[in-house]
Every structure is written in C-alpha cells, then in structure tokens.
Design a protein that fits this description.
235 residues, 37% helix, homodimer, five-stranded parallel beta sheet, Rossmann fold, alpha/beta
Chain lengths: 235, 235
C-alpha cells in the first residue's frame, strides 16, 4: 500500500507495534489521511514492540515514522518499566476489578502530549490513538472521558488550537469495538497481525508469553472473530 | 534552608532554572511542601539553565531534583530548539500581538504530563508551575484556562485521580502577579536571583543577552520592584 502525501490531510497516529495501533493506522489510511506515526522508547520491558512498529510502518507504507526516546524509568511505578512481575492468567473479573500493576503513570497523557507537539509542527489537526473501552486492561487513561478532556486541553494549550478555526481532534476509532471486531476490520484492511506484538512480557525474539492481560485479550479477539491467530508464542 | 521530608506533604515543582520557577520553589516550601523538582533537557538552546536549576535546588535544600531527557528537536518548530533567531528588543505591544517564534509546540502539556507521572509515583497531589498571565510571552500554554483543563485531564487519566478522594491540583502561585511582585516576594523568601537564568539566548558562560523577551520581562521586574538586578549580562 502507498499513499499520495501531497494531496492528503495529515494525521499523527500513536503506533505501539501492537494489534490495536496497527489497525488504527490502516483505518486512518482508509479515511484518506497521510500517516505520521509516533512510537516511544520509554524504558518498556517489551521494547521489542518497536521493531514491530517499524515493520508495520513499512508494510503499510506510511509517510513518516518517528520514535521518541523518553525514559520513564526515571519515575518508575509500573510492572512495564520496573522489576515487578507482569500478572499472568487473570480472568475477566480480575481484569475489571482494579487498575493493574502494568499501568504506567500518566503514560497516555505523555504520549498524547508528544503527539500534539508532532501534530502542531507538521500542521496536522487529527491525532489517532487506539484506545479501547471494551476489551482493555482497566487503565484510567484509556477511557473516553479522559480522551475528551485531553482534546480540550490540547486546543487550549497550542498555537494551532488558539489561532486557527479548526480544532485539534483526538480520534479513537476503536473505542467501542470489541477485540474481535478490531481484528476483523484490520484483516479486511490488509493488516498483517503476524507483524504485531501485543505481549507485555515477550522473550528476546519477540515471541509472546500468551498469559499476560494483553495476550489474553488478543487471543480472545482472534478466537471470537474466528480468525487464525498468527501470534508466535513462546515454547 | 532545609525541610523535614518525613512530616511534610510532597509537591512536584517544574523548575527551569529561571526567575519564576525558583520563586515557586521557595513559595511551595513556605507553604510546607517537601519539594520534588523536575527539569528538562529538551534540546533547548539555553540548556545552561539546567545548571541554574541545579544551583537553585541545592541552595533551597529541596528533597529531590530529577532531570528528564526529552529531545523535542525530534519535532522542532521553535526558535528555542531550532536554528531560528530569537527575537530581540520587542516592545510590549509586539509581545502581546501574537504567539512568538520562541513558543515550543505543546511544551507545557509535555512538561505537566511528566510532572504528573512523577507526582503519581511519589504520591504527591500538588504540581506547581510558574506560569504567569500578566508579564509573559504570550504562550497559549501559560493561560489559566489551559491549566484548569490540564488539571481536569490529569484527574481523569491517572490512578491517583480516579481511585482516591483527593484531587490532583495544578498550582500556579504566580498566575496573577507582576514580575515586580514576583521578584519582591522571592527576595523576601531568600531566593538568590543571581543563580537563576531566564535568558533564551545566553552565551556559553550563562551570561544573559539582555534583549530577548525573557530578559526584557525580567529586567522590568527588578526595575519596577526597585531591586538591584543581579543578572550577569553579556559584554
């Protein structure tokens, strides 16, 4: 796939290298956007996801892909950035019960802030993020009320939001979709999920653990969508 | 000065090394907070301000000082991070007319997001930022409506905001003070302004240009407060 960057409107897409964000890239392309993807090396234990992000970016033929280096281990406070075990084999009621230790303090606020800086410098009005309020890990910064509030903040705190007629929009096309609906939609758009890594605790080759919240939600998505799961699991 | 960190409540303070943020540290200490200061090496041309931040932190005897490395030259778009001339000798009406080229896209949104992550990991509820809506450079992300919106976003996007009774507060003690009032208040609290650097375009020794917006506002502050200006100027 490729795109004509001269005629299309630009969008910034937060691209982790996982299933959701890869699908969002394909959806935004379908909507006619030229894609400027942004990934983060933030000290995550699963930084191999950045290789997946690069592969997805190349496969989908996007306009630009930037990787910001922000060391969130400066603060710590999460199983994804500290030496804390990633929970395994939790059932749905456990996932819904509280905010898990894999929550990274203020991560989406930070990610969206950088996306906002990126958007402002390239003149993009649309920022896409693959948050999901149905099949998700219970993070406060994936909820629609957070996204709506950030959008308001973005328009108040930037030149683009203050001086231009158009508003900055935080786009969340996956918000009310199940993981099964997401995998179905992405497959139709040509997303190669074999390239994506969702696991919080992959081995050094990128093989998934199959048991963390993220793996369980992903597995459920392929199963309920009746799609073959292309994930490479450990062992 | 020193503080008893065991009994006091914690606050995160954004500390640039300039006049305003140094004053905010002293004010927050006076209010009984244990200070956890956060500075950024973001690709600013005036990164020597970080030496000033370190000196201020040591002088005021704060609990902790962290420096986050975030390379905003990845995006560019500002005279502070790009090879664009810093405007000199602008008068007040020029400063008020539009958003200057020294505006860094989404900078305060990014800085506050990191402060939020820091606050959440240490259990602080209060984040101090030295924004000023009177004698300022016309940046959208210094306005009270932006700060209020960010506070709302912060409470919606964090564990601390969602699960605890207390709210996260973005504190702006300088918001409605003139630069003269700020320098007067800080001097009474023992802030040594000779240690601070406000200039956007200092030389390699930290001497101020005396002509950028930030120098002009600072000079005006000392003049109107009838305080000796301890700033070391170039030439």
């Amino acid at each position: 796939m490729s795109e004509n960057t001269s005629k299309t409107k630009k969008a910034v897409v937060l691209l982790s290298g996982g299933l959701d964000s890869a699908t969002v890239v394909a959806m935004a392309q379908k909507d006619g956007y030229s894609i400027h993807a942004l990934s983060f090396r933030y000290g995550q234990r699963h930084s191999i996801e950045l290789e997946a992000a690069d592969a997805v970016a190349k496969h989908l033929g996007i306009a630009e892909h930037k990787v910001a280096e922000i060391d969130l281990t400066l603060f710590g406070g999460s199983a994804l950035t500290d030496d804390i075990d990633v929970p395994k084999d939790r059932n749905e009621s456990e996932m819904e019960a509280d905010i898990p230790v894999t929550y990274v303090p203020a991560r989406n606020t930070i990610f969206l802030s950088f996306a906002l800086a990126y958007a402002e410098t390239i003149g993009a009005k649309d920022i896409f993020i693959g948050v999901n309020a149905l099949d998700y890990s219970g993070y406060p910064d994936c909820r629609p009320e957070f996204i709506a509030s950030f959008e308001e903040t973005a328009n108040l705190g930037t030149k683009i939001g203050v001086t231009e007629d158009e508003r900055i929009r935080i786009r969340t096309p996956l918000l009310n979709m199940t993981k099964a609906e997401i995998t179905t939609a992405g497959s139709k758009l040509g997303v190669d999920y074999a390239m994506t890594i969702s696991c919080y605790d992959p081995d050094t080759t990128g093989a998934a653990c199959g048991h963390c919240d993220s793996c369980l939600l992903r597995r459920k998505g392929f199963r309920e969508a009746k799609l073959a799961d292309p994930t490479r699991y450990q062992g």
